[in-house]
Write a structure and sequence with these properties.
The structure holds two protein chains of two kinds.
Chain A lengths: L3 E7 L2 E7 L5 H8 L18 E4 L2 E4 L12 E3 L12 H8 L9 H16 L18 H7 L10 H12 L5
Chain B lengths: L4 E4 L3 H7 L5 E4 L5 H6 L7 E4 L8 E3 L5 E3 L5 H6 L1 H6 L1 H8 L4 H6 L2 H6 L5 H4 L40 H8 L3 E4 L13 E5 L16
Parallel strand pairs in B: 1-3, 2-3
Antiparallel strand pairs in B: 4-5, 5-7, 6-7
Helix pairs in contact in B: 5-9
Classes of the chains: A alpha+beta, B alpha/beta.
């Protein structure tokens, strides 16, 4: 068994790494690149604290190997700010008090950013009555689409209102 | 997780040739396999990453059905407008399971080949005929409210883990083997699913999860 050379592109920066193939994308980000914004919760794909955006799609970074992501565009919570300004979704979470302890928040925000792109692309959810139509982003739709992110402080109502605010083009 | 050798597949033929060892596994989305590898329930010594292969398309068949590549993600299949218009049951069934993060990685082939979700399969301190054949079934006398009612045996009462597969069965879909290994006749190494033409129905089937 030997290490693999892998080049990861994270938040627009390319990093050459020499990794044991067992290292998950989550552990590569946290332990090898020092990007500790992405959190380890359950480490089995259920809590969503490790959510990052890969090639525009949100995934659980705990359930994928780092070596499988050579050439992919990886965005973590550290990569969402623009020129020192909070991303609109980060600002909305602050404004709506969409957190208490904050441990799940980086995953919640990455998930919410990708959620808006999925909705814009017309993706249905389990809450969509007729999957052949482009669904309206109601609170029920937002809650269903965020079901992969658990919040033990139960900040759910404020998380939903923060996401709705950004979806409706809310304040920056 | 036990150590393994990692390899990116270059072609279908080379992937199959690389995976001749009994302890070799293909990895695609990895959402089930890596979970089981962390628990050392799966301990492959050689992992062949098949993501570079061209198995990610949804194609129309001459008979008016759909041919779904093994690497089509659950999200892509559920969001495909052809599936949503003609087989809404399939879209709904996929969306009833897991989360968007998991569906973005999980593939059609992997969904069909995933292992059981019976809690005793995951608990290595308990007997499980699926994990260790002949060891017994702890679910029979255990906490089994989530296990199967129909199609069970004295050896195993696990429910099939896939919502998608149930919808595909209802739609008379077939799994096509694209390649098989001569060294291990009959063993599935690559799958594609085919959904037959939609037949007009008076009642529009819909998916409602009850557990």
């Amino acid at each position: 068994m030997h290490n693999e050379n892998v080049a990861l592109t994270v938040n627009g920066r390319r990093h050459a790494l020499d990794l044991d193939p067992r290292v998950t994308l989550l552990d590569a980000l946290r332990e090898h690149l020092g990007l500790t914004g992405t959190k380890k919760g359950c480490d089995q794909g259920q809590c969503g604290a490790c959510t990052v955006i890969v090639n525009g799609q949100r995934i659980n970074s705990c359930l994928t190997l780092a070596v499988m992501h050579a050439g992919d565009e990886i965005t973590t919570i550290e990569g969402l700010e623009e020129d020192g300004d909070l991303h609109p979704m980060q600002a909305a979470f602050v404004r709506h008090d969409g957190l208490q302890c904050g441990y799940c928040t980086p995953g919640q925000i990455c998930s919410a950013v990708a959620l808006l792109a999925e909705h814009k692309a017309g993706w249905p959810s389990y809450a969509t009555a007729d999957v052949a139509t482009a669904p309206v982003l109601t609170d029920v739709e937002i809650a269903e689409r965020m079901s992969g992110n658990i919040c033990r402080c139960s900040a759910y109502p404020n998380i939903v209102s923060a996401i709705r605010d950004v979806a409706e083009g809310g304040r920056r | 997780m036990k150590p393994f050798r990692y390899e990116r597949a270059r072609s279908l033929a080379s992937a199959c040739a690389s995976a001749t060892e009994p302890t070799a596994k293909f990895i695609a989305g990895g959402t089930n396999l890596l979970d089981l590898m962390k628990l050392q329930i799966e301990t492959p010594t050689h992992l062949v990453d098949i993501n570079p292969l061209s198995l990610g398309d949804i194609e129309e068949t001459a008979e008016g059905g759909l041919r779904i590549g093994a690497l089509v993600t659950n999200s892509a299949l559920a969001a495909d407008m052809g599936v949503r218009r003609r087989y809404p049951l399939l879209s709904q069934a996929i969306l009833a399971g897991a989360s968007t993060q998991l569906r973005n990685k999980a593939t059609t082939g992997g969904n069909l080949l995933q292992r059981t979700r019976c809690p005793y399969f995951y608990d290595t301190t308990k007997p499980c005929n699926k994990r260790v054949p002949g060891s017994g079934c702890a679910a029979l006398g255990g906490i089994n409210r989530m296990n199967a009612v129909l199609g069970v045996s004295d050896d195993c009462i696990a429910a099939h883990p896939s919502d998608m597969a149930v919808a595909m069965s209802a739609l008379d879909a077939r799994a096509l083997k694209q390649l098989r290994l001569t060294a291990q006749p009959g063993r599935f190494r690559s799958t594609r699913s085919i959904v037959p033409p939609a037949t007009p129905r008076i009642l529009k089937p819909c998916w409602r999860r009850v557990n």
